[in-house]
Design brief:
Elements: H1 2-13, H2 28-37, E1 44-50, E2 59-61, H3 74-85, E3 92-98, E4 101-102, E5 105-106, E6 109-113, H4 122-134, E7 139-140, E8 144-147, E9 182-189, E10 195-201, E11 212-216, H5 224-228, E12 230-234, E13 237-240, E14 244-245, E15 251-256, H6 263-274, E16 278-279, E17 283-285, E18 295-298, H7 302-312, H8 315-328, H9 352-366, H10 389-400, H11 405-411, E19 431-438, E20 441-449, E21 455-463, H12 471-482
Parallel strand pairs: 5-7, 6-8, 7-16, 8-17, 11-14
Antiparallel strand pairs: 1-2, 1-21, 3-6, 3-18, 4-5, 9-10, 9-15, 10-11, 12-13, 19-20, 20-21
Length: 488
């Protein structure tokens, strides 16, 4: 400790570890770790205060300065969602059999209307189609019509944000978001064989891929993705020019589909045919009928969805919730559990702007009437978002005093145990914290469980070219906040 503190003081004198008198309030272990990361304290905002709102902050450093919080902004979206919609809120996906069923044939169209469900994943999509078969449909003589009008999302290139179009976190929101517009590739080496079997889910209509790849039998597992030399440039054909290391065992590789605009059509047709179904027409966009739906698929409750969003920092799920607030805000306290009714003429349309306005008004009403953060798309995957540590502290104190506190707190990663904090080196189970990470941004915000039994709100945001190196400093901050039973 003495060695690290001396190093921090030396670097401080050189201008690295502190930038003004306020830096002296930072704990020595935090200063030392910041110095090691070569991050100046004028790029850091920190706030530690009692969760119950009593007393002065234990630590406050540049806490009033608006900064880019990365995925920590999901705290605003998820708590607003819980507060406006309620933890039991569910998304509904109405389905119409628009024609009679005779002898196993639907003589008309199958119509599916998206209302923003963020968890219409492969398993639930299979259940939807299985429900269709349970109604006696084996062949669709018409088309599969997708009503996706509930969200007005401008066209965008999946690689616009960071040049990584195949990363699942860059998937765009969609009123009918199927399986995050992603593929899941599973590689399984054959026992005593020379190849690894390849399985891709969901099966996409019109897309080919190899059923196996050669095994490489030397060396450790390493970077198996690079070893495969995958080529996703042709949306109709997936290629592997390399081999799969045998020592890797079974691996699962999720990847965004190269042509997201055609994903829904390919996934629905491919899955329907894989289940033995037949389709005479095609899959196309259109409007739902005015009549009541034949049946509806319901999502898991919002409390469960919020857990997935915060534990694993799922960007597209956060954006689905954000746009749902823009669409359903007017219905949040009405009948039907906050869900607008189904049908062609009753589809409230949400945009990022309408969602921002709903959250802005909610913030002024519930958190602070005069200091509103800059919210872009609700996920934090943005260079425009801005919020201060002080604003996040107010949000977390408000949540802590509300009946929704258990739902929000349990949705946050537990240090050293799960989610995005599973590999944290801070004291295990010492805190529930949301993480945030972008190029030049690292952040934490949530609740620390003090050794005395008290709970604290902790917020830390770093905006600096070396932000990716500050994890040890944030771990040191968590450990410092925990040790409160030695305070005078």
């Amino acid at each position: 400790m003495t060695h690290w503190w001396a190093r921090a003081l030396l670097l401080c004198a050189a201008g690295w570890a502190c930038a003004g008198a306020t830096a002296q309030a930072l704990p020595p272990t935090v200063l030392a770790a910041l110095a090691q990361a070569r991050v100046t304290t004028d790029a850091v905002a920190i706030l530690v205060l009692d969760a119950d709102g009593k007393g002065a902050p234990r630590l406050s450093h540049r806490s009033e300065v608006p900064m880019n919080p990365a995925s920590v902004m999901k705290l605003v979206t998820t708590y607003a969602g819980l507060d406006l919609l309620g933890p039991a809120f569910v998304w509904r996906t109405p389905v119409w059999l628009d024609g009679p069923v005779t002898g196993g044939v639907l003589k008309g169209n199958l119509v599916i209307q998206g209302q923003g469900d963020p968890k219409l994943v492969l398993e639930r999509l299979w259940l939807l189609l299985r429900r269709l078969q349970g109604l006696g449909v084996q062949r669709i003589a018409g088309n599969i019509v997708l009503d996706r009008r509930a969200f007005a999302v401008p066209p965008a290139n999946a690689g616009d944000f960071d040049g990584e179009p195949l990363r699942p976190y860059n998937a765009a929101p969609d009123a009918l978001l199927l399986n995050y517009k992603s593929l899941v590739m599973t590689f399984m080496p054959e026992a005593n064989g020379a190849v690894a079997l390849v399985q891709i889910d969901p099966p996409l209509a019109g897309v080919r891929w190899p059923s196996q790849v050669p095994l490489s039998i030397t060396g450790a597992c390493g970077d198996y993705r690079a070893a495969l030399k995958a080529d996703f440039s042709d949306p109709k054909r997936i290629l592997f020019a390399g081999s799969y290391p045998r020592d890797c065992g079974e691996k699962v590789w999720p990847v965004a589909y190269a042509d997201p605009a055609s994903y829904n059509a390919r996934a629905l047709e491919g899955l329907w045919r894989s289940m033995g179904g037949r389709l005479d027409g095609d899959v196309r966009d259109g409007a739902a009928p005015d009549a009541p739906p034949t049946f509806e698929m319901s999502s898991p409750p919002l409390a469960e969805v919020v857990r997935d969003i915060n534990k694993y920092s799922n960007n597209v799920m956060a954006q689905q919730l954000f746009l749902t607030l823009g669409r359903s805000g007017a219905h949040a306290n009405g009948a039907n559990g906050g869900n607008p009714p189904a049908g062609a003429e009753t589809v409230p349309v949400s945009t990022d702007e309408s969602a921002r306005e709903v959250v802005r008004q909610w913030w002024q009403r519930r958190i602070n009437p005069s200091h509103v953060p800059v919210i872009d798309n609700g996920s934090g995957l943005s260079r425009q978002s801005r919020i201060s540590a002080q604003q996040l502290g107010q949000l977390l104190q408000t949540a802590y005093a509300s009946p929704l506190m258990p739902e929000l707190l349990s949705s946050l990663p537990l240090v050293g145990v799960d989610g995005t904090l599973k590999r944290s080196r801070a004291g295990v189970s010492s805190a529930h914290l949301k993480t945030g990470s972008l190029r030049e941004v690292t952040a934490l915000a949530g609740f620390v469980h003090g050794a005395s039994g008290k709970r604290y709100v902790l917020v830390a945001i770093v905006n600096h070219p070396n932000a990716g190196a500050v994890r040890p400093a944030l771990d040191a901050l968590i450990d410092w906040a925990v040790v409160d039973n030695q305070r005078p």
